[in-house]
Sequence to fold (580 residues):
Amino acid sequence: MKEKISVGLIQMTMSEKTGENVEKAVGMVERAADRGARIVCLPELFATRYFCQSHNDSNFDLAIGRDDPLLKRFMKLAERRKVALVVPFFERSGPGLYFNSSMVINSDGTEAGLYRKTHIPDDPSFHEKYYFAPGDLGFKAFDLGFIKVGVLICWDQWFPEAARLTAMMGADIIFYPSAIGLLPDERGSEGEKMRQAWITVQRGNAIANGLFVAAVNRVGCEGNADGGGIDFFGSSFIAGPLGEIIDSASETEEQVIVAKIDLSLIEKTRRTWPFFRDRRIDLYGGITSR
Amino acid sequence: MKEKISVGLIQMTMSEKTGENVEKAVGMVERAADRGARIVCLPELFATRYFCQSHNDSNFDLAIGRDDPLLKRFMKLAERRKVALVVPFFERSGPGLYFNSSMVINSDGTEAGLYRKTHIPDDPSFHEKYYFAPGDLGFKAFDLGFIKVGVLICWDQWFPEAARLTAMMGADIIFYPSAIGLLPDERGSEGEKMRQAWITVQRGNAIANGLFVAAVNRVGCEGNADGGGIDFFGSSFIAGPLGEIIDSASETEEQVIVAKIDLSLIEKTRRTWPFFRDRRIDLYGGITSR
Fold:
């Protein structure tokens, strides 16, 4: 029953205005749908600038509930265009409890489910532990009928455990909505090594699990008050079960990627390299220790 | 106390004669030592051809005990040249019990310990489940004084759990002695994708764990009675904690690689990307299920 599916990746810049970002995202989803995409993913926290560059408690005002009109709008878009969506958002779950989340929306406009970013970074200019509680929903694969979709968010991409557990839930593809870039002192050859490492570790996750991965990053520079800022490096890509790059985006420009993927390659690849047969589950207990 | 260390990788072809293979390996270790290598790794099962292409119970005669003169010879070589060694061998542990093992030898010629291949493949022309019991010693890092060394063998390279647990034992570098290549019907563009996948998944292991990896493969074609055979693809390489290739060998020729690695990069890289801080050990329990 597995077939070829067109997948859309939205690489975009964000302004200070949520309304503008949402309009732009809607327009880019429409373009992906025009080109035949049956599922489209937006970048992490696409509705705002990457506010985690600083500690500022007014930024919590940017968070929205799971029933917010913004999400309803994307549900209607999904229904109208018959396209499934992965929509990242800054989630207010309750007073003082916030998550870095993504809603998965079926192509009939209903909610398929929610994923909350599991691994929360906290590094210079990425103060996420201040804003987000660690995700509490575990790893998931959402069955959309025509494809099973895993979602992991940005920092999650560096943790092979997350990809493995998502694959074990049955995912055909893992989307990685992201907001990753370089700090001013990382530009140059060191930064290029870091960008390559980001691509390579995700291709490694595809290979080790025999599935597709799609990394969907923001692009452009977002400054901050102290003159630092982050150069988001774009470079969104989609890779197959052998880690082969199927399509990739620019390092500097907004871009809509629509790529056709052949889901039958998952079974084919896993027959050639049956890693799931040979996992030594009797020896992996140490994974749950620090 | 961490310093720059020269590491040797021996990529070689094997004949039908164990004596010839051992002489060649000794010579190549000597060359690596001449060039300053302080630790050298040989390919998987380097003393013989890759006999797992067929089921043949006379091949069990190729196995040796842990106290075999072959291993003593490498212990003496290590002592004489003051070089640590990773020496793979077909281990006879007892009647009817065989492992695919590697002995780690200190640079004073003493044994540092043993690793037994954990993940055993069984695929066309790779009938390893017939010959080898699954390794029962778990994942290890051997402290050689100047470096902590993890060893994983070939098929182990595809399992991120193995790299993670070896890293958690404190390894600075993981050696992957290997015997991997292509079957006749895999030559061409599909085979090139597979070779790239092999390189990429190991670079991914380096990145996800912030350590060095060294893949040490055999090279050349070894035929079998039915005219099939395996084209071992060489391509041995050593990569750093960002997955950057430090040096790599030919796809077709024997080669001694000696590469200098800077162990201080491990701490530096892990400070920039502190994955070990952020692992969600409360959510990884599923890793121990099939």
Observations:
- Chain B touches chain A through 49 residues (CB under 8 Å).
- The two ends of chain B are 41 Å apart (CA to CA).
- Chain B has one domain: 4-288.
